[in-house]
Amino acid sequence: MTHNNFEFTNYFKNYPDNNGFYGRYGGAFIPDDLKKAMAEITEAYYTICKSSKFIGELRKIRKEFQGRPTPISYLERLSNSLGDVQLYVKREDLNHTGAHKLNHCMGEALLAKYMGKKKVIAETGAGQHGVALATAAAYFGLECDIYMGSVDIKKQAPNVARMKILGANVVEVTHGLATLKEAVDAAFEAYCREYKDCIYCIGSVVGPHPFPMMVRDFQSVVGIEAREQFLEMTGELPDAVVACVGGGSNAMGMFSGFLNDPVDIYGIEPLGRGERLGDHAASLQYGEEGVMHGFNSIMLKDENGEPAPVYSVASGLDYPSSGPEHAFLRDIGRVKYDVINDDETIDAFFTLSRMEGIIPAIESSHAVAYGIKLAKQMKHGSILINLSGRGDKDMDYIIEHYGIR
Asked: Is 101 a catalytic residue?
C-alpha cells in the first residue's frame, strides 16, 4: 500500500534507520556516559530478537503466562444503538495484569535476564506499566524500582499496592507537577547512576533509541493478532482502527498490524478540559518539534521552550510529548490524530460498562469515545478499537469525581 506516495511494503525494515530515526524524529539525545549503555542494549536487542531461543521463550510466556492471544469482542448492543456501523474491541484488558503493558515488560525483562542484569528500573503514570514490570521482575527474579509521581500515587492507589505486593520498590517523585514527566526524569537519573547492573525498561514508544523500536516490536503482537482475528471473524479488514495515544505504545502495537492495509487509522489524544495550554496533553495536535527524555518528537512547550505542564483525566496519557514514530506517521499522513475531552471520555466509560459489561480503563475510554463518534459519522462499515486496559484501577477515582451515573 502507498500512502501520499509513501511505500509501506518494507516499512519495518526501513524505520527506524540505524541511528533510531523515523524521518527526522527519534534518535538518542543522551549524555555521553549513557551512550555506551544504550549501545549495549541496542546490540543485545538486535542479536537476541533474531534468536529462536529468545523468540520461543517469549511465545511460551505469552501463551502460558499472559493468556495470549487476547480475543476480539463484537459490541452488538452498542453497535445497534448507534446505527449500521459495527464496533469491535481488541481485549487487551484481558491480558494478564489488565492492560497491554505486559507485552513489552516481559520482553524487556527477558532481555535484562539475557544481558545478565540484576535489576529493572522504570517510571509509571497510571501504574499499569509499573504493575506489569513488577510482575515481570517477580517472574524472572529481578529487583525492581518503579518511579511514580506523588499525584499519580494518590490517584492510582490499587496499582501502587499491587506493585508493592509483587515486591517492587515504589519511589515517590515529588518535584514539579509530580506526574509522569517527573517520574521519567527521576528514573533516567537513577539509570545514569546504576546502568552497569540494571536495565531501564521504558513504559512506552518514547525515550532514546532503541526504546521506541523495541517497545513497538514487543507490542506489535496486538496488531498482528487483531488483524488475523478480525479477518477470521468477518472475512474482511476493518474500515477503521482506533487507539488512544499518550506516549503511544498500545497504539503503535495496534497500528503496526494495519499500516500496509487499506484501513483508516486514528490515534486519539486527550483534550482534557480544553485547548488552553496546561488543560490538555494533546501534543501531536498542539505541539511543536523538540527534544525531551532523549528523543526528538512533537512536544508541548511553555514560553521558555521547556516541556509544558499537561493534564488529562487519564494518568497514563498526561505526557507532554508523543512517540517519534507517531510524529512521523502524522507527518506522512498515514495516521490521523484527533482529540477527545474528559467529558466525552467519562461518558464512553459508563456507556461501554452499561451496554457491554466491559469496564474500560480511562485511557482506553478515549478510544471508545472516538469510536462512538466515528460510528455516528460513518453510514456503514466496521471500526476496531484497541481496548488497551481495564478500569479496575480507576474505580475509586471515578466514584470520587463523577459518582455512579
From this structure: yes
